[in-house]
Each structure stands twice: as C-alpha cells, then as structure tokens.
From TrEMBL, chains A, B:
This is Thiamine-monophosphate kinase. One of its GO terms (biological process) is thiamine diphosphate biosynthetic process. Mg(2+) 1 binds at D30, D106. Residues 14-121 form the PurM-like N-terminal domain. Belongs to the thiamine-monophosphate kinase family. SUPFAM superfamilies: PurM C-terminal domain-like, PurM N-terminal domain-like. Reaction mechanism of ThiL seems to utilize a direct, inline transfer of the gamma-phosphate of ATP to TMP rather than a phosphorylated enzyme intermediate. Pathway: Cofactor biosynthesis; thiamine diphosphate biosynthesis; thiamine diphosphate from thiamine phosphate: step 1/1.
Length: 305, 305
C-alpha cells in the first residue's frame, strides 16, 4: 500500500523528508483508532498521549526533535463534553511532555474516535534504516515482550504475577519513547529503526536495507516475561519478537562508540541492551549456544501488499 | 475545540504555518470520513480526490501551491483488494492533477474508511483572513448553492431538472478548487478565506477578523438554484449561504485591481463574481433594494465550542 502511494524507487523509512534550502523537514503521520488500538480499560488521556507517542517514537529513532504538530480528530456525534475536554487536555499535556507546539487541526464526525497526529521537525541529517556496517554492534533501547504480554492480559484475559501485570499493562497504556537518548546519540548510530511494528520486522528490515546479516546473541527478554509466557502457554518469541507496539528503537553502531553510548544511556536512564552484531550475509539469526536459527519477520503489518 | 488545541492568542486561519529560516512552511490537515462525508452513490476514486481537494482548496485560498503530501488511511478489515487499488490509484491521480508529491503515510484498521491528508507548501507570505480594508470589493470564485442542492438530491431525495441535477451532483462529487487563480492573483488580495464551511461562516469570519462590515449586494446564486429551492420548498439562503462544501474562496481587493483580477479570472476560466463591498462597522448584511438584512453565521461547525 505504502509502496504504491510513494514513489517509484521507494525505500521505506520511519519518517518522511522534504527539503527547504539545505534544511531537511521531517514529517510523520500516525493514526490511533479507538476500535483497533484502544483496549476497553484504557483512559482517553492515555489514548491521546499514545497517539502522540507513536509519532514521537519515530522521531526518537531518527534522532530528531519534533517541533510542531497538527491534529485531526474524528469524534462520534454522541461524545460528551467531558470526553472532549479530556481529549483536548490530553493533547495539551502531551505537547508539553514532548516539548512541541500544536499549530492547529480539524475535527470531524465519525463512527469511532480517531486521532491523527502529524509532527514536524527540522534537521541537517537523519540516520537511515540502511547503513549498518559489518562489525557493528546492535542495540535495542529496552527489553521487549512487556507490551505483547500486556495486550494478552488486556485482550485475552491472560493471568500473571501482580507486579508483572502492572508493568505489562503500563507498557501498553503509557509507553515511553526514547527521544532524548535518540537526539543526543544519533551521531554514533550507523542505522536505526523504530521497533513499534515488532522487533522481528525491525531487525529484518534493517538487515535487508543494510545488505548485511544480523546475529542476535542476547535476546532482549526478561525472566518474568519467559515465566508469563510459560504459565500461559505462549511461545516466548511471539511476545518478544513479534508483538509490536513497543515504542523502543533498534540501532547499530561501531564498537568504538560502545562505551560512550552506554555511558550516555545510563545518564539518561535509557535501558539499552546490546543484542547482537552485524556480519556478512543476509537475514536475521538468533544464536543460542553454537546454533543459529533464522528469525523471520512476523511483526505487525497493516494491509501491506 | 481548535481554540483549545492551539495557542493562547489563537486567530483561526485556513492553514497552519511555521517558519524555517525566512521560509514559511504551510501545512494543512483534512480528514474525509466515509460515514459522514461520502454519499452512498459516490465512487471511491471521487472520495479520495475530494479528500485531497479539501486540503488543496485551503492552499488555493491562501495563494500557495502544495508541494508535498502525507496520507493516513483507515480501512475496514474486510475491504477488497480492488477497493484498495482504487484508493491507491485515486491518490496517485489526485497528486498528478494538483501537481504535488506524496511522500508516504500509513494505513490502519478502522470501522469505516477514513482518509486523512496533510499537504505542505512553502511561501514568503500568505494572505490572511483579516486584512480587508474599507472600500475594498468582495469577490467569490464561483456561484454558491449547487453543492447544497446536490446534497439535498443525494441525501434527501429532492428532485430537480435533469441538467441541474447533474451539475449539482457533480459539484458534490468532483469539486474544483481554484488553485491556479489563487496562486497567480494573491498579490492583489487583501484578505481571503476558503468557503467550504459555508458562505455565511466565511463572510462573518472575514468581516470579524478584519474589523469591518461586509455588504453583499449581489448574492452569488443562479436562477436554476432559486428554481430548485422553490420547487422543493427550501429557503434559497440555506442553499446559497449556509450549505458548505463549496471548495471556492472569498477574497477582498482594492477597486484599482478589479480590472486585472477579472481579466486573469477570464483567462484561467475561473468564474469569479463581485458580490459586495467592505465598509465601516461590523457584521455581514445582504442589501436588496434599499433594505439591509443581517446575515448570520449558520455554516457548518464540527463540535465548535
């Protein structure tokens, strides 16, 4: 779909770019749909915030700070005044949290709530999805699997330990994009991609665009995720690699910047994890002991042809 | 709603603006919702085109050419491949018709089709809604009332003469924004506004922002519209002033440019109509013989507070 809407030589990126003089204008549009993206227990203010986070996360991955935003809302005819206020306040709070200015927008009537957010920023250069070099190390900005677990709990009534359930649900309702870390460290990155379509999709896309092989030798899971998977008879890879909606990002960098990147991450409290390395070849493989298993792209694709 | 999403000193405009160096980036977002904006007989390709026209029309009013666009689609899970192709081809055709480049976008699942279009252009200056001067003449880029009549025919099964019905329906399905005229004549305009929220809304907003009184002494109706109104027992003012969805615009200009503007309009085949003049005072009045009746704003407001 996206390919047909774009240009002939279309290389998929996290954000769209156009130039004004020497300045690159970075643009991203993202839509949050009530019936699709909003579990029944989610607060409207968190839904509004998440519609912003989805866009901010792409800017974070590219190391660009969003400066302006425009918003289009669809609201059902019967929506209450108090819900409209909650939406309006939600956008004001989110624009303060992520330090951009809402320029305006429009409201429309629709069958369900739809929040479409478009953010803008400027930069001299962005880090692309292609660009990973042989010998680079691969990082993810956080552990994976909490969001998919949270969705299993919210949508399929799966059970887990109280503290885990809280953490998993919070990762669905109030995800935290890594904007400050992305902006201040992009100079060290050779390639990056927002991982909200699923970690397996992200890794495969980056490896493919970079024309390299990605080896994952440290899966960014956590003991409590494996435990939740086991007790609910879910394949743990499904939660960690194929869930999506984690507003983290994956990046590659030369080994020589490992120490400085890790130091910066600590000072910004961004829990980065070294998950593997880039080598010659193609595809993505998970290394466990001496065995390599191919990791296919099973992430989240809307109507992709 | 929009006021609360915007800034403290919010003056409503057709487009949003931010600056990069000395260049103004013009941005507009507009959403077309299947259940709200798409009469059952409308072709998908025309719906797609109209979602673009709604944005282009605001650019036309401000005299700026859109150069880039991004698109967000909500599509129902069950949509057919052939409809997806029609949507995709529709966007490609519309981007060619209005000469801008689609940078990308995203697709989402939703209960109904929703097309959200955001267009971008650059300019050194735009014509504002405020700016009309006492003594200026007021123009509209086309006759009004066809679209409202078309909607009466499509949605409320009203009847009319065959040629009129065709013209009225065509104005709903394939509206023509006045982009070339707006871009090439903006240097003569003192104020402009897209009229798609209804002519009464447009005139009241321009008069109020410009701190002047607008006198309408030549209502931009047509004999066939009055005839349709009469035979269907509809108040003609409702069709002409309060309908909306006409992707025309209203502009004011000094008398000294009347001749050159009319000459340019003829050469671009844009049917401009001189509808009145700007004077001291406030409000909008329709002058008929020696009588002045106040024209209130009864146009189309979505959830405006």
């Amino acid at each position: 779909m996206q390919k047909k809407l774009g240009n002939k030589k279309f290389v998929s990126e996290d954000v769209e770019i156009f130039k004004v003089g020497k300045t690159k204008i970075i643009v991203k549009i993202d839509t949050f749909v009530e019936g699709t993206d909003m579990p029944s227990k989610m607060k409207i203010s968190d839904a509004v915030r998440k519609s912003i986070v989805a866009c901010v996360s792409d800017f974070a991955a590219k190391g660009v700070r969003p400066q302006y935003g425009i918003i289009s809302l669809n609201l059902p005819k019967t929506i209450s005044r108090s819900k409209i206020n909650e939406i309006s306040n939600g956008f004001n709070h989110a624009s303060k949290e992520f330090k951009f200015k809402i320029l305006g927008g429009d409201t429309n009537e629709g069958k369900e709530m739809v929040f479409t957010v478009s953010l803008f920023g400027t930069t001299d250069n962005i880090v692309k999805r292609r660009g990973a070099k042989i010998g680079d190390i691969i990082f993810a900005t956080g552990p994976f699997g909490y969001t998919a677990s949270g969705l299993e709990i919210l949508l399929r009534k799966k059970k887990g330990k109280k503290t885990f359930v809280k953490k998993a649900i919070s990762s669905v309702f109030r995800p935290n994009p890594r904007l400050d870390f992305g902006v201040s460290n992009k100079k060290y990155f050779t390639s990056t991609m927002d991982s909200s379509d699923g970690l397996s999709t992200t890794l495969n896309e980056m490896a493919s665009q970079s024309n390299c092989k990605f080896i994952i030798n440290n899966v960014p899971d956590r003991y409590e995720i494996l435990e939740f998977a086991k007790s609910n008879k879910i394949e743990p890879n499904k939660l960690v690699f194929h869930g999506g909606e984690e507003y983290e990002f994956v990046f590659t960098a030369s080994k020589k910047y490992k120490a400085i990147i890790e130091k910066n991450a600590t000072s910004l409290k961004t829990p980065i994890i070294e998950i593997g390395y880039v080598t010659k070849g193609k595809g993505v493989f998970v290394q466990k002991g001496g065995k390599f298993s191919s990791l296919k792209d099973f992430g989240w694709h809307h109507f992709r042809k």
